[in-house]
Amino acid sequence: MEFLDIIDINGNLTSKSEERKAVHQNGLLHQASGVIFVRKNKNEYELLSQQRSFNKDKNAGLWDLSSSGHIPSGQTPIQSLIREVKEELGIDVKETDLSLLGKFWRNEIHKEDFIENELDYIYVCEKDIDISNIIIQKEEIEDVKWISINDFKILLESNRAVKRKDVWDCLFKYIGNN
Asked: Smallest Cα–Cα separation from 104: which of 7, 11, 2?
């Protein structure tokens, strides 16, 4: 059973934690973290995207961040993210590899009893990862691949990628400045 810390509307931890299912059923404010691996390939940026498992509660089969997950009770965003990347992709990252892209609120109703009301800490990691070294967690991920920014924008426009407008806009701006 996974417990999540409850936060207030300013993103501050309260002294409460709840079981993950109850958090989503009641739309309680909580935290998640994610990372987008990027690399430059022949003067064009690419991002490492995961295709979410077709068995997920939300956004099943859509292309998304490289890795992400809820922050379990008692963990920091970085601690949770380092663990999540290892679990989902079999990749070791260090805190010094990660740069905070931003904090983004996510308020979505996926079905009557699944309300996502979270503050996402999204990081960027500029690292050229060899796909053949990735060990995907089948319960979470269908596939992983490097996608050019232009091709990823096409996935977004065709509703084949998770809608995270603020995150993607911020990433595209970050890449444009590098």
From this structure: 11
Total residue length of the chain: 178
Rounded to a whole number of angstroms, the distance between the first and last alpha carbons of the chain is 42
pLDDT tens digits along 4-14: 999 999 999 99
What ranges make up the beta strands (E) of 54-98?
63-64, 67-70
How buried is residue 14: exposed, middle or buried, by Cβ count under 10 Å (0-12/13-18/19+)? exposed
Full-model pTM = 0.95
Place of tokens 């691996």: 37
CB 116 within 8 Å of CB 107: yes
DSSP one-letter code for 161 = B
Q: Are 70 and 4 in contact (CB under 8 A)?
A: yes
3-state secondary structure of 74: coil
The 10s digit of each residue's pLDDT in 12-50 is 999 999 999 999 999 999 999 999 999 999 889 999 999
Phi, psi of 19 (to 5 degrees): -65, 140
User: How many Cβ atoms from other residues are within 10 Å of residue 42's Cβ?
Assistant: 6
